[in-house]
Amino acid sequence: MNMISRCFSVRRPASGLRLLGLLLAATAVSQPVSAQTDNPLLYEVLDRLELLEREVRQLRGELEMLQYRRQQQPDTMPSPAPAPVVPVTPPPSASSTTSPLSSLPSTQASTPSGTPPGSDVQSAYDSAFASLRSGQYEQAVSQFEDFLRRYPDSALTPDAYYWLGESYYVLRRFEQAQQIFLTLGADFPRSDKLPDAMLKLGYIYSETGDIPRAREMLQKLIDVYPNSVAASLGASHLRSLP
Q1: How many whole angstroms separate alpha carbon 45 and alpha carbon 58?
Q2: d(CA 7, CA 17)
Q3: Contact (Cβ atoms closer than 8 angstroms) between residue 45 and residue 20
Q4: Pairing with 130, which of 35, 42, 76, 148 sits 20 to 30 Å away (CA)?
Q5: CA-CA distance, 182 to 203, in Å (whole number)?
Q6: Taking a C-beta distance cutoff of 8 angstroms, is the pair 167, 146 a contact?
Q7: Cα separation, 144 vs 122, whole angstroms
Q8: In angstroms, rounded to a whole number, what is the distance separating the alpha carbons of residues 9 and 203?
């Protein structure tokens, strides 16, 4: 039994990227080796492919932020029943890897609610979130890391972990993003960001070529949180996997 079994946006436009990949392959095959590096069409296809991938990551981040802002609005509907606790533990290979936040004070899963945010805490969080929302991802990483060092027990700490992982994800720093999302699940198993973290872990495993683990994580998400937006996105991505 592996890690996912023990523990615990927008569908990627695979057809467009695959079409570009086929065009790229056809272009490369049709040209002599000596001419491939000087082919303007080859460079144009590569540039467009990179741009599309960047836009997909940004759109996923924007979707997450829209969902977050909607959750912050007053809700007149009855609160749903508490979500089941689904603890997350790192895979064996991750235990020997230094966490990108290893220097931070450890958080306690026994106090998920944390300390109510004061004006300074809220201001620091809002500033980091504003950087993320405006596309300043490197700055957002720095600000969220600083927030977690200064306010490890705040009620906003679980969300700060999630948005830090999101910032790493958009920057394609998948190893760091994976560690952050796993930390969120391990230390805050009742966080309402857990379904989104599981979705992003599924994306990361897919992006890094670990399709079996991606399938297992996304299926776990669907089974545990079947009515969540994350589960709907996960089901769509699961159907697109080879």
Answers
A1: 20
A2: 33
A3: yes
A4: 76
A5: 14
A6: no
A7: 12
A8: 9
Q: Give one word for 84, left, alpha or beta, with left for phi > 0 and alpha for psi -120 to 50.
A: beta
Tell me the per-residue pLDDT of 40-67, one tens digit each, with 9 for 90 and over: 666 666 655 665 666 566 666 666 666 6
Round to whole Å and give the CA distance between 31 and 57.
32
Q: Which two tokens stand for residue 116?
A: 């109510």
Any residues with CB less than 8 A from the CB of 170 and at least 6 apart, and which?
A: 57, 58, 60, 61, 137
**Amino acid code (one letter) for 153:** D
Identity at 74, one-letter amino acid code: P
Share of the chain residues as helix, strand and coil, in percent rounded to the nearest 5: 65, 0, 35
The tokens describing 87, both together, are 């603890």
Distance (Å, rounded) from C-alpha 51 to C-alpha 43?
12
Backbone dihedral region for residue 78 (phi beyond 0: left; psi -120 to 50: alpha; all else: beta):
beta
